[in-house]
Amino acid sequence: MKKELRFIPGIVPPKGEGGLALWFAFQGNKLLVHLDGDGSRVRIPTDLLGLGLKPRHPNYLGKLDGVPCYAAEIPEPTPPPRAMAFEGLRQLYGRLEEDLFAIAGRAIQILDWDRNHRFCSRCATPLALREKERAKGCPRCGLLQFPRLAPAIIVRVEKGDQLLMARSPHFAPGVYSVLAGFVDPGESLEEAVAREVREETGIEVKDIRYFGSQPWPFPHSLMIGFTATYAGGELHFDREEIEDAGWFSAEKLPPALPGKISIARRLVDDFLARKNKANEKERKKKPAGVLANQPSLPFERG
Questions:
Q1: What domains are there in the chain, each with its CATH number?
Q2: Could you report the per-residue pLDDT of 154-166, keeping only the tens digit for each?
């Protein structure tokens, strides 16, 4: 049975409803949360005014299990109330309930758009929020501004039993990931995959297939995942963009993998799971004595 969506997005805030509401309140790019006990779990506040806070630029997001959700800004240098903190979304992954984390990612992108689109980019007239769509309109020249979304591809490239991974100079020490890059204007997603792999590593790919997608609110991207197969060429890369790259087997991975928050990790874990399943089938075909001293698959890393 398909799971029903708990969150129903909305544009027009409910009228005549008081009481409980969830407030995704940001100070810069940090979310205000209640700390439970040792801080390993956090909650979203429901009453900012009762906490003595004055939210600015509220934006209605929709309802979670019937409860209205709002995004808002908390001006700096307002300190957090007692037993609360402002924390970045990356640090909140795994500590905030999954549905709430997804709404927080939506909220920070809408606030970022609202903050950066106060005036018309064509004639500098103050923009006005549209009532029934997530957009702002210019009352003078009619220009419409919608929330910005930057599509980016991310791709797992395989060659036999090996996976192509690389590290950028800005990665944390030891971390390698699959390749990714933004889509250019006039380019299909598949064309973007082939171009990015070619530009970053010098190789060609084939059999490009869709894997999945992930909203990426850092600050406003949509990651679109693919898999592909090596088609030719030798690895070479521009060290300003790629510090190192290579082919890795499931048994010999880089020192560290992407964080579990990312679709990059999902792509790697899917590769490892398939290799693990294939190895199990091979083991079952062999006599019991042959299985001795076989290395275990490093399925969980990082």
A1: 7-116 (3.90.79.20), 150-285 (3.90.79.10)
A2: 999 999 999 999 9
